[in-house]
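Structure ticket #2291
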Amino acid sequence: MTPASPELASLRAEIDGLDERIVALLAERIAVVHRVARHKTDETAVRAPDRVQQVVDRVRALADGHGIPADLVEKVYRLLIAELTELELDAFGRP
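Resolution: structure written out below.
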């Protein structure tokens, strides 16, 4: 395997730094989701399809504003929301 050029190594280091920030932001978002879950009373409130659509619409618009593919951002957020919904449902002690 040939070593990466200095420019490629620098770009990879930049990506690594971005990944650190993204994971830190995900941790922050998850902490807020846990706090939100305390205010929900049942599975319907956890699933909140209207809120999910509101978030998806908002992040699609943000993606457009940043010039990145809105479909990609929507897929990422739908996966994130689905996984966090499962965490919330587990917190309710579902069978």
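Closing remark: The two ends are 50 Å apart (CA to CA).
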